[in-house]
Amino acid sequence: MFESLSDRLQAVFQKLGGKGKLTEEDVREAMKQVRIALLEADVNLKVVREFVARVTEKAVGEEVTKSLTPAQQVIKIVHQELIDLLGQANVPLAEARPGPTIIMLIGLQGSGKTTTAAKLALWLRKKGKRPLLVAADIYRPAAITQLESLGRQLGIPVHSEGAQSRPPDIARNAVRRARDESITHVIIDTAGRLQIDEPLMVELEQINAAVEPVERLLVVDAMIGQEAVRVAEEFNRRVGLTGIIFTKIDGDARGGAALSVRAVTGVPIKFLGSGEKVEASTIEPFHPDRLASRILG
Ligand code: GDP
């Protein structure tokens, strides 16, 4: 993800660096190129406009045009604005006290929810926690068996009641079991649909009301681009998201969704997932500064 954006921005700054002293005109021309690069990376139009306006305002100031290293100054400003856009700092997973910490994973079908549930469980176990996976996606029998088999492979307990019980009841029973078995984290894999639909939303609201998860994390495929922003807005309106996990960042997504979603919805990105393999290393906490540095190369 971000390769092409990264290449384009680096080219803009290289050109700027070759100029030595910068005029306001040079800065404005560079910002025009930055704007095009962001739009081509599929960043939300409003986000691009505001971003470019903020950077331009700072960059045409005295500091840059009078500076001995003006291009470096511009890069520094863009770097800082990217960090702000991405949410400033890492927002860690919330911990319920007393436990268990209940995490509800939400998302469209195919977003990587079930895989991410298992990755997150592994990541938590590596931190010395005791996770329990909960199979609450009862409409896709394969999802239940997928989670059960992942749990067996990884040695992580899975609470499953097959497809007969209602998801809010499954979640409630899982939390009860977690208390009995000194589980620290309950990770609920909920049903996904191809599209956001009313029954899906109602069910999520019911699970939410039944077990009051401290984390309601939206799992989004980074490849769906701008659509991710719309999906996040809709789920946020209905269930109040506490975080976003972008999956498939190993793919060639242009990255615009990841750059837009925080600014548009206010919901922090908490994790990035990469790769089909379920390993603790294929999920990582999201750090805005690290991603900004990666984009600027
Ligand atoms: P769900 O329907 O949301 O539960 O999605 P799944 O967890 O079943 O994942 C859908 C497909 O995406 C599967 O083939 C996964 O192996 C794949 N997948 C999930 N996460 C990633 C990722 O980060 N990178 C890649 N390349 N594939 C992923």
From TrEMBL:
Residues 1-86 form the Signal recognition particle SRP54 helical bundle domain. One of its GO terms (cellular component) is signal recognition particle. Its main location: cytoplasm. GTP binds at residues 107-114, 189-193, 247-250. Residues 100-297 form the SRP54-type proteins GTP-binding domain. It comes from the Bacteria. Signal peptide: none annotated. This is Signal recognition particle protein. It comes from Roseiflexus castenholzii (strain DSM 13941 / HLO8).
